[in-house]
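Standup, Tuesday
Yesterday: got the pipeline producing structure tokens again.
Today: sanity-check two examples.
Blockers: none.

Example 1:
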Amino acid sequence: MAGNTFGTVFRVTTFGESHGSGVGTVIDGCPAGIPVDIRDIQRALDRRKPGAGSGTQNPAVTTRNESDEAEILSGVFEGVSEGTPIAILIRNRTQKSEDYSNLAHTFRPGHADWTYFKKYGVRDWRGGGRSSGRETASRVAAGAVANAVLQKAGIRVKAYTISAAGISCIARDMDAVDRTAFRACDEEAAKLMALRVAERRAKGDSAGGIVECTASGVPAGLGETVFDKLDAEIAKAVLSIGGVKGIEFGAGFGAALLTGSENNDAMRVEGGAVTFLSNNAGGILGGMSNGNDIVFRAAIKPVPSISLTQETVREEGGAYFDSDVSIEGRHDACLCPRIVPVIEAMTAIVLADMLLRNRSARI
């Protein structure tokens, strides 16, 4: 099975399944001398856990309550990276495989069950196996290490929900993000999101949303000019997250409605430094960072695991038959709150990789 490694210099490999012994990551290419604190990794993982930061049971998230306790197996000595592969393990402790026994021969609509089966001829029906959102815990752990690299360069990545279940944020209050159940940047909008999603969950349905991400302190010149453009690499990283169906940078699709004079980000010199008067480019020009904040938005699909009865098919002895399915078990009703730290992690991994790649760009 290919496709489990991301990055060129800062390379991240994830492993494990939703209902296996655990999930984890191996990070190769992290420079020696980077402070790697297990407490920072744990804090990142805790932000991904159900209900983290909200103070109450979040109507959007699953009741599966994994401890997500990280173990550093290699590559770190006395709190500092050694320049060797860093391996991190997160054991699964509360999986309930029996919740999925009725799906051994039935394909869940909206999931990767059918495509996995057609590709490999076999699939792990216990929660989706490798395609489960559980895999993202590995990404978050790797992202915490990437953030340690970025911290030395003064780069900070912050993602937040700007829309969920049709409710959009008006304010952009970054202090509110980790106080709200939806990791939204508007506390009043977050309350309405919770009510709307609770209503959909009560009906056996789910909701989607939009997450925005900002990377500040990024120096100009990160990224490559042709196939490895910075926006292309971020897009690949973010679209590799299950549940993400679209991405736009800066003005995004809105740029199609603008004129060139409206869309171009005018430039001036202030205090001896080059600045931009707007950021329609989302901080990236010609595939490279321009010194502005990098800003993009990701579209998150509704959670496909719903208890409403859905039409599907089942496989028996190599033949297919019409069937109906109702998904039982513990599932999110909206991915936005828990996907926020995953988007942050994948963005940090890309930026750490590009930062290290840039060291060989010129002497």
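Example 2:
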Amino acid sequence: MKADKNVFPYRIYDSNGKGTVYTGLTARDYIATQAMTGLCSNSRLYMYGPEEIAGMAYRMADAMIKQSEVRDE
């Protein structure tokens, strides 16, 4: 899995039927949001601030992407 791969791309059409594709979240952002959901549900992490928890989430996402790239080789 590539960190910059976009997940959930979507297209919006104008009145003339022309579509514009919006890229959505990157895989890294999506994985980090999922990790952050889990981290925020852990009441033992109450002593950390939002920036620290976000950093943990992105470190988890980076680790997952790295493992995925190793497996794909």
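Quick observation on example 2: The helical segments are 27-40, 50-72. The chain has two helices and four strands.
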